[in-house]
Specification:
This protein is an all-alpha fold. The protein has one domain. The chain contains 15 helices and no strands.
Length: 394
């Protein structure tokens, strides 16, 4: 369902779903809610790929440089205003509370390198929990910095082949990175987080989104071809997911001697580690997110609820929602004297509902009164893609 040219309400609905999953995880309700971030990654890759697929190949360095600068300017206009507002809120609060130690992370936050600081300074996120999720913005911005160089240097077909090769090789890249992290003296858990948060070994999620955009540009999402592609991706995603779960459930039983419910732990919950599972799980999750996006784009009837007007409206503001939800969650925990995820189930559910609603309201305000006006001022209305097709972070 398209509510206006260039805007897909179902994609907005997927963003709302991703945001909800992340909030539910942070409330201690959905152990695999982190996969919503990978859904955001795939959507972002699709939108960026779609934009660059429509860019003519620059015949000269001067024209190519102009294209890059236009792209980066649009990204800055899209990302920086709400991000700057969120950082400002936090800095004012920290100063008011007399807590100056977390301000040491500002250079990393402002340079969008926070993920690297968290990897190599273990425990840094604990200094101020409302900063703990911003590493994902760093991963996204680093992809936005590098992928256009590939996109505008290579033709569409060669770019697609290179992207597919990088996707296929991503488990090997994660293995090599984890081995290097081990040589730096990091613990097994720190190595697993290092794989989880390192941008260069998680770019395959974005690249899958760009490949879907390439398929769309080639007419691969229309009619019978689109249904076949979506079905094929869904079958591959189911096969990859079931194979991963079956293999590591068996590993838990045999290598870890787990029994009962413990057999199913550490399969899709939290930062995955042990027996190489962190090498494969992200590929399975990214493939599942890509299949879900493809099914949404071909307007699968079972996913029509994603296009519901109010749900899609939440998705359009989900970037601000993702930014502010953890500060709201921290505030709720402070008010109750205990972290929300440590509350009894009934109170967690109530806190989730309250925080989700507050997040949606604050996100709508930020989207309408900060994001869109700032984009018009910084990039100019002609430079902006349709609002719901602008990448949101997860």
């Amino acid at each position: 369902m398209h509510d206006e040219p260039g805007r897909h309400a179902g994609v907005d609905g997927l963003r709302a779903l991703a945001m909800t999953m992340v909030i539910a995880q942070h409330c201690g309700l959905l152990p695999f809610g982190w996969t919503g971030v990978w859904l955001f990654y795939v959507i972002s890759g699709f939108v960026i790929g779609r934009s660059l697929e429509r860019e003519p190949h620059a015949p000269t360095w001067t024209e190519g440089r102009a294209q890059l600068l236009r792209f980066w300017r649009r990204r800055a206009a899209r990302i920086v205003p709400a991000y700057g507002l969120y950082l400002t809120f936090n800095v004012v609060l920290l100063v008011a509370l007399g807590r100056h130690e977390p301000l040491a992370s500002l250079p990393w936050l402002l340079s969008f390198t926070h993920n690297w600081w968290m990897i190599f300074e273990p425990g840094s996120a604990a200094a101020w929990p409302p900063f703990g999720h911003l590493w994902t913005l760093s991963v996204e911005q680093q992809f936005y910095l590098l992928f256009p160089l590939l996109a505008l240097t290579l033709g569409p077909s060669l770019r697609a082949r290179v992207s597919l090769a990088l996707v296929v090789l991503s488990p090997l890249a994660r293995w090599a990175w984890s081995q290097w992290l081990a040589t730096q003296g990091l613990s097994e858990g720190q190595q697993a987080f290092g794989v989880y948060a390192a941008s260069h070994v998680q770019f395959d999620a974005f690249l899958l989104g760009t490949l879907l955009a390439h398929a769309e540009q080639q007419g691969g999402l229309k009619g019978a071809a689109g249904r076949l592609l979506a079905q094929g991706l869904t079958r591959w995603a189911l096969a990859a997911g079931l194979a991963y779960i079956a293999v590591y459930a068996l590993v838990n039983m045999q290598a870890r001697q787990d029994t009962g419910i413990d057999v199913w732990r550490n399969l899709l919950s939290g930062v995955l580690l042990g027996q190489g599972r962190e090498l494969w799980v992200y590929s399975a999750v990214a493939l599942a997110a890509t299949a879900l996006l493809a099914q949404t784009l071909i307007a699968r009837p079972a996913l029509a609820w994603l296009s519901a007007p109010y749900w899609a409206a939440v998705g359009r503001a989900s970037y601000s929602g993702y930014l502010f939800h953890l500060l709201l969650l921290w505030t709720a925990g402070e008010a109750m004297g205990l972290r929300v995820r440590e509350l009894p189930l009934g109170e967690r559910l109530a806190a989730f509902a309250t925080v989700w609603l507050a997040t949606a309201v604050l996100a709508w305000w930020s989207h309408r009164h900060v994001e869109l006006p700032a984009q018009r001022w910084l990039a100019g209305p002609r430079a902006l893609p349709p609002p719901s097709l602008q990448p949101n972070q997860g």
